Amino acid sequence: MHPDTIRKYIGLGLFLICLLCPAFAIGMESEDCLDCHTDTDTVGDDFFVEMAPFNNSAHADVGCVSCHETVSEDHPNDGNVPSRADCLDCHDDVGEEYAHTAHAENASCNDCHNPHMVRGATAVSGHAMNQMCSDCHDGDEVAESHAEWLPQASLHIAMLPCISCHTASEDLVTSLFIIKKKDAEDGSLELASHEELKALAGDGNVQALVDTNEDDYISLAELRMFNRNPANKTVQLQGMMMPEEVSHSIETLDNRWDCSFCHASGPEAMQTSYLSLAQPDGSFKRVPAERGAVLDALFGTPDFYMVGATRSKTMNYIGLAIISGGLVLPVGHGSLRFLTRKNRRKSED
Q1: Which segments of the chain does DSSP mark as H helices, in order?
Q2: Phi and psi (nearest 5°) for 174?
Q3: What's this model's pTM, rounded to 2 decimal places?
């Protein structure tokens, strides 16, 4: 082979190595970080990062060194304090929206969001969303302030994520969570963890507890089977209306003050629903459910009932039968008297 050709191949090889090395370095640096920061004995509680939640977070693909740029190969022996990226470096549009809210002066991004566990709104439970709010807002005070205008304020607050009302999102859906049955006077509910659902499922798939044919679709018949299955006596379904997308404007839209936004016959927000299943890393997987499933109180979600919204075909038929039965006597009696009026006149003569 000609020497010039050899030099060209060597040059091309060195060029490719230069391109690939940074990528490998970033990957290795992230792995090296997690080797230590997933062990509390090594880094302590303050710098501990949970492996599974981080690997499934929105920031996992970015890599540790993208936010902590000053970390060197000699860390932590170099004595330097690692830098931390400003969230606005990537989320400037969110920052601009958030800056115009009352929260901006009182809470930073990290006060609500753990950067090592950030997920999209559809992968987080409504309970976890409310937990972030309750870190600053006392539940009793919130219930008291809402009770000035909202009927059964405590029940609403317990059964809805705060951001279902305090967000600019117009698109709401109903998420069905599997919770543990317990009698609590304050209406508090506790989610069933993945480990608890796994124990309930035994050798089967957790999703198959409801999605029996495992076709990634929850039918009304499958919801009925789950509700009636004696093996599921320790758990139940809980429906929560949640926004599809979360804004950081924290504003209350005018339609949220209108009770008919939720309490109407078949509102759009309850036509679309998903089963949200707890995953090993703490996130939730959504499985689409049959359209309008939560509107069937008896067979769909018996523990999800909203006055004026939830309808049951069976109860409609029973009500129709009661009304029809009530009309039989007066209508029948009146009709009979009308048809026999001539006979009664002759008998009177």
Answers
A1: 3-37, 40-43, 51-55, 64-67, 92-98, 109-112, 126-134, 139-146, 153-159, 194-201, 220-228, 313-339, 341-348
A2: -105, 120
A3: 0.71
SS3 content of the chain, % helix, strand, coil (to 5): 50, 10, 40
Closest C-alpha among 208, 203, 202, 224 to residue 287: 208
For residues 177 and 276, is the Cβ–Cβ distance under 8 A? yes
CB burial of residue 289 (10 Å; 0-12, 13-18, 19+) = buried
Which residues have C-beta within 8 Å of that of residue 280, sequence separation ≥ 6?
A: 52, 194
User: Strand pairing of 235-243 and 284-288?
Assistant: unpaired
318-327: pLDDT as tens digits: 878 888 888 8
- Give the domain ranges of the chain: 3-89, 125-313
CA distances from 135 to 82, 185, 227 (A): 27, 22, 34
pLDDT in tens, 267-320: 565 678 899 999 988 889 999 998 877 666 555 665 565 665 555 567 677 878
Report the chain's C-alpha Rg in angstroms: 30
The residues, any chain, with a CB within 8 Å of residue 61's CB and separated by 6 or more, are none
**109 exposed, middle or buried (CB, 10 Å; 0-12, 13-18, 19+)?**
middle
Separation CA 227–CA 94 (nearest Å): 41
The set of residues, in sequence order, having a beta carbon less than 8 Å from that of 67 and lying 6+ positions away, is: 59, 84, 85, 115
